[in-house]
């Protein structure tokens, strides 16, 4: 149960985010409600946090994130200290377009109405069971010879014509072949794949090719619209579903049932790696001065975007998201994250280690560390650090971290 003031603050935050796509500051909340101090705001937000309505990110501006609570068959009447008792109050429920519920309060001696429309928590209608005839103890549809090809822990991929490599569309897209290999390794036909940071839909394309169901989430509506456009060029007789949703990854549990995901695979926004002018130092000489030189190619300016966060905070936020989606994975389901380290102010920032720590804290178990060998994608590289500072060329490899939900 919420007090009237708590409900007002929650509504204000929700409306603020809808209008501006980021949360209000504590000072803005204090000013709006004419509260006596910032500590009063803290108290209200802490109550809303403990009741599961929001989370707050430490050391992060505009750090409030709302959580869409499950409200199936739930009517919540907000407490109001000014209300008098209703000795003959009746609670009537009536469906509205099968998605909403109405609360009508009647008071003796006159009619007092308080209508509240609550959207039912309705999960996605997407299949998740295998449609192949593989033995029950097999984790994929591969035969022994195909399995052996995947055992080497150094992977190499090439981009194909369908891959989108235009940085004006998206600054960092992995090739279709990467999620495709993970899908082949860790799922059967018909099972469900999740990409929490789907970008422009590469994972969904791979899942469609391999007859897997898939759902992807992204904060950026522009990316989701592009994904839907790619998916519209679909097969004539699809046997699986691929769905792209514009929403914060923290809200994924509102869309999917527990124990339905056979694989989650993603390449998350790499902390604040892109939030700086491109120097193109990995390119040779005059090649550095291309259309992207000195441009900031950030995913977005949304403070909820992991790509705006400092590395440690990035890993912490990633862990919070994955902790919430852990129960959605089947026991033994794999969770693959493609990540790279960061070179910043002449220091190596081992983001892959931060991610391993955060995922293990969230309840996952690290199974394999795989190196994505990108040397075939690096052409005409420039000299880096010579003659006094030996620095490996970060563009030549990335990490593919393979976790699972313990059985």
The DSSP helix count reads 9
Number of domains: 3
Shape: globular
Report the CATH superfamily of the largest domain: Vaccinia Virus protein VP39
Sheet with most strands: 8 strands, mixed
Helix content: 10-25%
Q: Mean pLDDT, rounded to whole units?
A: 79
Oligomer: single chain
H/E series: HHHEEEEEEEHEHEHEHEEHEEEHEE
What is the CATH class designation of the largest domain?
A: Alpha Beta
Distance between the termini: 36 Å
Q: Based on helices, strands and strand pairing, what is the structural class?
A: alpha/beta
- Poorly predicted ranges (pLDDT <50, ≥5 residues)? 70-120
- What would you report as the Rg, rounded to the nearest angstrom? 24 Å
Estimate the strand proportion: 15-25%
How many β-strands, per DSSP? 17
Instruction: Provide the CATH architecture of the largest domain.
Output: 3-Layer(aba) Sandwich
- Strands in their spatial order, largest beta sheet: 8-16-17-13-12-9-10-11
What is the CATH T-level topology of the largest domain? Rossmann fold
Helix-strand layout with pairing:
Elements: H1 4-20, H2 26-33, H3 38-50, E1 54-56, E2 64-66, E3 91-92, E4 95-96, E5 100-101, E6 104-105, E7 118-119, H4 144-149, E8 154-155, H5 177-186, E9 192-195, H6 202-209, E10 213-218, H7 221-232, E11 242-246, E12 261-266, H8 311-325, E13 329-339, E14 342-344, E15 347-349, H9 351-361, E16 365-373, E17 397-404
Parallel strand pairs: 8-16, 9-10, 9-12, 10-11, 12-13
Antiparallel strand pairs: 1-2, 3-6, 4-5, 5-7, 13-17, 14-15, 16-17
Task: Tell me about this structure.
With 407 residues, this protein is α/β, with parallel strands linked by helices. It has three domains: 1-67, Winged helix-like DNA-binding domain superfamily/Winged helix DNA-binding domain (Arc Repressor Mutant, subunit A, Orthogonal Bundle); 82-120, no CATH class; 144-404, 3-Layer(aba) Sandwich (Rossmann fold). 25% of the residues lie in helices and 18% in strands. It contains nine helices and 17 strands. The strands form five sheets. Strands 8-16-17-13-12-9-10-11 form an eight-stranded mixed beta sheet, with helices on both faces. Strands 4-5-7 form a three-stranded antiparallel beta sheet, with no helix packed on it. Strands 1-2 form a two-stranded antiparallel ribbon. Helix 8 links the parallel strand 12 (261-266) and strand 13 (329-339). Helix 2 packs across helix 3 (38-50), helix 5 (177-186) crosses helix 6 and helix 8 (311-325) packs parallel to helix 9. The two termini are 36 Å apart. Mean pLDDT is 79; it is low at 70-120.
